[in-house]
């Protein structure tokens, strides 16, 4: 069966991903820029401001809010150290109490609060997050530079997690072997795969593990 042709900036079937976080990935960034095929101008540089909702009791559901929309992805499997994540749900604010009760809070893996309204605005939802000691809304600002190496979608990004500056590099594809080749070409073979949930928890002190460098 022919492998799927990935197009950067477009949706494909669920991909596997290698990602890592640290202070310095200048060599990998340089190699990525030199090895990349030309990519659409729309992904040369992208910026965003998001809030990730992290939970002390959950490491398998990744929740973020951007432009008034909530997106939750769930961990599916790990193969050869690469992680696969699938969409779990998408919702917009105002959001119904039913969705919060049946989908959002179960994804956080915390006790479901009592709801006294049928719908909740973004601000009301964030107030609920602040009132739960097991949850935290973490501001994540991103400056992302897109590339395409070995038919894998790659990026180098400057990321600010509650104002703390880190750098992330990644490679993702539906084809595991293509990611492995890219990791090798970028000289990242011995670098830990760290996803956004893990990185955020390490930066805010919810995990005592360090970043990759």
Structural notes for this entry:
- The structure is a single chain.
- The protein is an alpha+beta fold.
- It has a domain of 132 residues: Hypothetical Protein Pfu-838710-001 (Beta Barrel), CATH 2.40.320.
- It is built from 5 helices and 10 strands; from the N terminus they run E-H-E-E-E-E-E-H-E-H-E-E-E-H-H.
- Strands 1-5-4-3-2-8-9-10 form an 8-stranded antiparallel barrel, surrounded by 5 helices. It has a two-stranded antiparallel sheet with strand order 6-7.
- Strand 9 and strand 10 form a beta hairpin.
- The longest helix is centred in the middle third of the chain and has 12 residues.
- Please work out how many helical segments DSSP would assign: 5
Question: How much helix is in the residues?
Answer: 10-25%
Stated plainly, the CATH topology of the domain at 16-65 and 73-86 and 137-204 is called Hypothetical Protein Pfu-838710-001
Please state how the strands of the largest beta sheet are arranged side by side.
Answer: 1-5-4-3-2-8-9-10
**In the CATH hierarchy, what is the architecture of the domain at 16-65 and 73-86 and 137-204 at level 2?**
Beta Barrel
CATH superfamily of the domain at 16-65 and 73-86 and 137-204, called what?
Answer: Hypothetical Protein Pfu-838710-001
Categorize the overall geometry. Answer: elongated
The overall pLDDT, averaged over residues, is 95
Question: Sheet bearing the most strands, described?
Answer: 8 strands, antiparallel, barrel
One letter per element, helices H and strands E, the order comes to EHEEEEEHEHEEEHH
How many beta-strand segments? 10
Return residue spans where pLDDT drops below 50 for at least 5 consecutive residues: none
CATH class of the domain at 16-65 and 73-86 and 137-204: Mainly Beta
Q: Which structural class should the secondary elements be placed in?
A: alpha+beta
């Amino acid at each position: 069966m022919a492998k799927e042709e990935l197009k950067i900036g477009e949706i494909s079937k669920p991909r596997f991903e290698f990602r890592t976080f640290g202070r310095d990935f200048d060599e990998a960034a340089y190699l990525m820029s030199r090895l990349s095929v030309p990519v659409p101008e729309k992904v040369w540089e992208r910026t965003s401001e998001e809030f990730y909702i992290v939970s002390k009791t959950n490491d398998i559901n990744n929740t973020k809010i951007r432009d008034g929309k909530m997106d939750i992805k769930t961990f599916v499997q790990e193969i050869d150290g690469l992680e696969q994540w699938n969409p779990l749900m998408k919702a917009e604010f105002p959001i119904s109490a039913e969705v919060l009760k049946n989908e959002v809070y179960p994804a956080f893996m915390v006790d479901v609060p009592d709801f006294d309204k049928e719908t909740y605005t973004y601000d009301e939802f964030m107030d609920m997050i602040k009132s739960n000691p097991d949850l935290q809304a973490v501001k994540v600002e991103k400056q992302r530079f897109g590339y395409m190496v070995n038919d894998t979608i790659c990026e180098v990004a400057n990321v600010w997690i509650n104002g703390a500056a880190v750098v992330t590099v990644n490679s993702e594809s539906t084809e595991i072997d293509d990611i492995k080749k890219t990791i090798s070409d970028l000289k990242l073979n011995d670098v830990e795969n760290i996803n956004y949930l893990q990185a955020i928890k390490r930066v805010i002190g919810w995990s005592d593990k360090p970043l990759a460098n």
